[in-house]
Write a structure and sequence with these properties.
Layout (H helix, E strand, L loop, with lengths): L25 E4 L5 E4 L1 H13 L3 E4 L15
């Protein structure tokens, strides 16, 4: 083992917040192993403390403000 972190996969609609069950946009990979998933609301609430504990944070909450691309009509 090299100790390098494996690339994280993008969060999908199937990934749910461990706190409330909403769609997860933040993944906290814990230094002792395991991960926690949070919606944007709960992620913002806990992200600072998780970083202080050494968690690696994957934050995809910016996707909430993206404008969908219109699809072509058939």
């Amino acid at each position: 083992m090299t100790g390098a972190l494996a690339p994280t996969k993008p969060l999908t609609a199937v990934d749910r917040c461990d706190r409330c069950g909403a769609q997860a946009y933040i993944r906290a990979s814990l230094p002792m192993g395991g991960e926690l998933l949070f919606c944007a609301h709960h992620g913002r609430r806990h992200i600072a403390a998780l970083r202080e504990k050494g968690a690696d944070i994957q934050d995809e909450s910016a996707r909430l403000s993206e404008t969908p691309t219109p699809t072509a009509e058939r």
